């Protein structure tokens, strides 16, 4: 089959690789019908995730049709259309039993495109398939469903729920890429009084307005003063970091009020300065996290019921065999205006 293979920092190749097969009795093999590229894939290509070895098939987001299953798989069967989650939980360890599958100690966690071959291919082997796939209702399209592989549960769990959004509160989302937009959309489920979006790209700020931001501000402007003005001098109750660079994390830490919270969602490839000399006295809370995907079934029900918007994330569409072009388009998002690129076959 064809797959997008990581060949080392800043090197990737759409090439022939062996077809995946069921290895463990808990595996499934899925024929990929839709996939999308994540900012984390770009971090991997930049060398920010050293656990990813050259030769690894990239990708952790997909929708597809089950081709085969291992003897222990009971919840799906060949022919089922499924969402492939970015997290593969064993379902048995202490972490999985408490809904923290991202920290699975039974051989799972973030595997696809990280520790095992991923979804940017014609077929993918999905470990722990009973806990790592979700059968899709007919009314949910592949293109919408693939947004539930990662960005929507990640933004909701690691940004909105970890950040404890409450009605009437002031929320600042730093980074209006796909994760930031998903954070804006899912934060609105809790009726905050104000959502401010910060980004460097005008098209992404325009998208933030469409997804529900009340105020948008270019990152080159005086964001600190604007947030202070909007909040009576107090600052934000919550700042969600959705970029993954030192400057945006430090901005979030400056923007929160006493007792405020920073929810870091971005993938950081280097160290960040934590200004405890300022924060220690302000009752600040900082949370980090890898998505656990425990919210995926609920988000899927909302999507099927028309209570969640997913179509607007996809700005560019490609055939699956145009993977190289899709990567190039997504990597140059400042020029192309790409939010999420969707590949189908």
UniProtKB/TrEMBL annotation:
Transmembrane segments: none annotated. Residues 8-343 form the Enoyl reductase (ER) domain. One of its GO terms (molecular function) is oxidoreductase activity. InterPro entries: ADH-like_C, ADH-like_N, ADH_Zn_CS, ER, GroES-like_sf, NAD(P)-bd_dom_sf. It is an enzyme of class 1 (oxidoreductase). Coiled coil: none annotated. Its cofactor is Zn(2+). Its EC number is 1.1.1.-. Belongs to the zinc-containing alcohol dehydrogenase family. This is Alcohol dehydrogenase.
